[in-house]
Amino acid sequence: MEIVLIRHGQPDWEPGGRAVDHPALTVLGGEQARLTAQALVGDRFDVLYSSPLRRALETAEPIAAALEMELQVESWLKELELPSLQGKTEEEVKQFFEGASLRELDRWWDGFPEGESFRHFYQRVTAGLEELLLGSHRLGVHSDSGHRIWQVPEADQNLLFVAHEGTNAVILSHLLGIEPVPWARMRFSSLWAGITRVRSVPVTGGSVWVLKCFNRADHLAGLGRA
Questions:
Q1: Is 27 exposed, middle or buried (0-12, 13-18, 19+ CB in 10 A)?
Q2: Is the entire prediction scored with pTM above 0.85?
């Protein structure tokens, strides 16, 4: 079984010089989405899932069209929720994030001030993932001598997710059995429209996940990286 994680294309965070909370893609981001769709043609996927946020949907829609697949939206795939920065200037946004990054590391678990806590975010994403895999794909997990072992059906399945840097980092950490930390997004930082693949491999008592490629972006060669 293979799970493919894609980060959305470049978003237009500050159209007209003012921040928006749920941006559309830039022209470059739209081109990144188109090229990602082309790169996936020829692969076989059973289901395509997307975050409901606009920047993810605008990335997933051309992929769905190219692969001739229906798009299934899952709310738990949303990025860590920030406090509203709507209407803030570029300098105000910069100061907000710089100030948050200076807090003691233990406070990073609280998320950004007035936003979703990382604890809640991690629980939301991992619970949503496990519920989806078990309910829709008969993929369960259990602990064996302290290790998380997955029960993967014999029928091979390939799942495609279009989401966000933070969301994909949590999914990747959870599948690979890596201890959760509130800087998971930094640990697995990815490019706009980068492609990551994990695959299940059999072990005694079930299967584990292995990383096949991380943040692949050769399909975007020649594009700018703003």
A1: exposed
A2: yes
